[in-house]
Amino acid sequence: MSLTWEEERRPIDLHVHTTASDGDMTPAACVEEAKRVGLAAIAVTDHDTTAGNAEAEARGAELGVEVVPGVEVSVEHEALTVHLLGYWPEANAPALGALLAGLREQREERNPRILRRLAELGYPLDEAELIAEAGGGVIGRPHIAALMIRKGYVASLDEAFDRFLAKGAAAYVERGKPAPEAAIKALLAARAVPVLAHPATIGARSEAEVERLVAQLKEMGLRGIEAYYHAYSPGQIAACLRLARRFGLLVTGGTDYHGTRKPEVRLGCIGGGLCVPYRLLALLKAERGRL
Ligand code: AMP
Ligand code: FE
Ligand code: FE
Ligand code: ZN
After folding, report:
1. Does the structure show a pLDDT above 90 at 131?
2. Cross-strand pairs, 82
3. Whose CA is nearest to atom 16 of ligand 1?
4. How far is the CA of 290 from the centre of ligand 1 (A)?
């Protein structure tokens, strides 16, 4: 299907979190926000779950906003924080289902340990309150941060991460994650297009380190990289685009929207007044067709 020029440049957002993980707007509310700000499409990419996709797709069909079902998984790669996005995972794909269930189990093991560390530091939190904060969604550190704000322990999400929750901070606890090979294999087996999320913010110390990672992931079957991201400078975007070209990868873009939890992030708004054009989604879709 060929698109007109007007259709190709419609704004989209391919990285959105909902209450199914650590966003604080329901899947339907995210689609409503997309409609309000005039986006043609959004992808729902919750951490370690696809539970929000169906609700978003249903609301999208009602409102005329295209909803791409997706997921975001964390993988273990040396000291880096590597996240993979997967677009259009098939429902009931056994390997991906097992991978996501394993990731959620590792979270369940980690969360009480973080609470214990915080209690030792003099900042007790109630596990039942944490579960309530997540409202049945996959629990992540942003939920712990939200509780800490509510208790008056910290003033902001950033303070909670900087002082307690970020890697290396006082209450940080590592959680078990799959190797990138296993995650990419499971995504491909589910016919999900695997894309490296926010490549400039994985904790790499140099561009060469990112390049090495991308080369390895490409060998494993990676198909794209998220070159447009809400916080990226023109220089970072350019570096991602160079990587994509060098390794023959598709380019995607999204904001990593988390609702009002991260109010500085606006749905569909990449820094510098940029929007992600629908054309990138059309190319991604074509790649899905080849899987
Ligand atoms: P978790 O999924 O529990 O490992 O937590 C990771 C999530 O926490 C990310 O997806 C972000 O939403 C959020 N996050 C990670 N680092 C930071 C940070 N430094 N400041 C604010 N939010 C963060
Ligand atoms: Fe998140
Ligand atoms: Fe991420
Ligand atoms: Zn994300």
Report:
1. yes
2. 75
3. 166
4. 33
pLDDT tens digits, residue range 200-233? 999 899 999 999 999 999 999 999 999 999 989 9
The answer for residues whose C-beta is within 8 angstroms of residue 130's C-beta and 6 or more apart is 111, 115, 139, 143, 144, 147
Instruction: Scan for tokens 């899947």, then name that residue.
Output: 27
CA 141 to centroid of ligand 1, rounded, Å: 6
What gap in Å lies between CA 92 and CA 237, rounded to an integer? 35
Nearest C-alpha to atom 1 of ligand 1 is from which residue?
140
Nearest residue (CA) to ligand 1, atom 15: 166
- Residues lining ligand 1, CB < 6 A? 22, 47, 140-142, 157-158, 161, 166, 258
CB 34 within 8 A of CB 243: no
Cα 151–chain centre separation: 27
CB 207 within 8 A of CB 239: yes
The residue whose C-alpha atom lies closest to atom 3 belonging to ligand 1 is: 140
d(C-alpha 54, C-alpha 73), whole Å? 18
From the CA of 256, give the closest atom in ligand 1. Answer: 12
pLDDT digits (tens, 9 = 90+) for 179-196: 999 999 999 999 999 999
b/e burial code for range 42-66 (CB count within 10 A of at least 16 → b): bbbbbbbbbbbbebbbebbeeeebb
The residue written with tokens 């708004």 in the block is 269
* pLDDT 10s digits, 63-81: 999 999 999 999 999 889 8
pLDDT digits (tens, 9 = 90+) for 133-149: 999 999 999 999 999 99
List CB contacts of 255: < 8 A, sequence separation 6 or more.
13, 15, 16, 229, 230, 265, 266, 267, 268, 269, 270
Show Cβ contacts of residue 287 under 8 Å, excluding neighbours closer than 6 positions.
193, 223, 224, 250
